[in-house]
Amino acid sequence: MHSPVLLLIDGFNLLSRGYFATSYGKDEAQLPRNEAGYYINALRVFFPKLFQLIREHNVTHVAVAWDVKREDSHRRQAFAFYKASRGELPEALIEQYETATSLLEEIGVAQVTIPPYEADDTIGAFACRWAKEEKGHCFIYSNDRDLLQLLSKSTSQIISSKGKDLIYTEEDFRNDYNISPAQWVDVKALLGDKSDNIPGCPGVGEKSALPLIQQYGTIETLYEQIEDLDPKYKRYYKKLVAGEESVIISKELATITTEIEAISSFSLNSLVLTTPADLIIDTLARCGIRVKLAPVQTELKLG
Fold first, then answer.
1. Is 250 helix (H, G, I), strand (E, B) or coil?
2. Coil, strand, or helix at residue 41?
3. Helix segments in the chain, DSSP class H
4. Using alpha carbons only, what angle is made at residue 123 by residues 285 and 201, rounded to the nearest 5 degrees?
5. What pLDDT score was predicted for residue 1?
6. Which of 137, 150, 202, 257 could form a disulfide with 121 if both were Cys (CB 3.0 to 4.6 A apart)?
7. Is the pLDDT of residue 303 over 60?
8. Residue 166 pairs with which residues in a beta bridge?
9. Are 150 and 173 in contact (CB under 8 A)?
């Protein structure tokens, strides 16, 4: 028996990418529906991908993490501008989210939503607990690069790129950025994130944010030494001073919560998928979704 392997799915990241990839250039009337009349274009990406990942990485434990409603997140409650620029979601995508959660429950795949935390926080808390308890390897599936701060010897991120999956490790990160994964939030604190409406430090871009953290380690150390700033960053001095409060807030927003009481006491055994293979296949087939199960699943059990 191989070591336990945990797969953490950023649920809405996968579902929405599947939706937009298969709906490009189409209106909702052109999207496929099943016999019951429900939209299934995103679901036909979501479920096959879920079971492909389970097959390919010998997964024993799996959880799908969902976000709370945007206005209910602890970041939005603290800072009203957080993610305020995001538009409304298509109705066909919202419907498929509701269908996905129902189907996952029916086939026994664990889903986790813990108010007021976002999916990133849920994933972070599970990954860190898994590592502390030395359970085995953890794979995070998401294209959200905020999650790179969670990389460790026991945690890798699977990123979809040009139709292929890239397994991105802590070593890859250190080689690419010459900092530790934990320092990624300091880079993000300076850069900000337009998609999440995180301001960062105005005037400090990619060419300077990473080198500053490579040299000073954290934004705290950077500001402690701001009056003795290396001359090569002299042109950023006024911008850094003016943007200090914004940078501090941005780091708070970018930092993933890894200690959540509900996850500390969560039964990891409940993440083992034990649903009979024929039930999984039949349930999804009735909704117009085909999946391929791993050999271990055909023995009716994962793990």
1. helix
2. coil
3. 11-23, 43-56, 74-78, 91-107, 119-132, 170-177, 184-191, 206-216, 219-224, 237-242, 244-254, 261-264, 277-286, 295-298
4. 125
5. 52
6. 257
7. no
8. 159
9. no
Q: What is the pLDDT of residues 192-229, one digit of tens each?
A: 998 899 999 999 998 999 999 999 999 999 999 999 99
Q: What is the reported pTM?
A: 0.93
85-88 long-range contacts, Cβ below 8 Å, gap at least 24?
A: 85/194, 85/197, 86/195, 86/197
> To 5 degrees, how large is the angle CA 185–CA 189–CA 195?
95
Q: Where are the domains of the chain?
A: 5-178+257-287, 181-254
Q: Are 190 and 213 in contact (CB under 8 A)?
A: yes
Q: Do the strands 164-168 and 155-161 form a parallel or antiparallel pair, or are they unpaired?
A: antiparallel
Tell me, what's the pLDDT at 72?
Answer: 84
Domain covering 181-254, topology: DNA polymerase; domain 1 (1.10.150)
User: Is-contact 221 247, C-beta < 8 A?
Assistant: no
Contact assessment for residue 75 and residue 18, using Cβ atoms and an 8 Å cutoff = no
Quick count: other Cβ atoms within 10 Å of Cβ 13? 19
Place domain 5-178+257-287 in its CATH homologous superfamily: 5'-nuclease (3.40.50.1010)
Residue 42 structure tokens: 């995103």
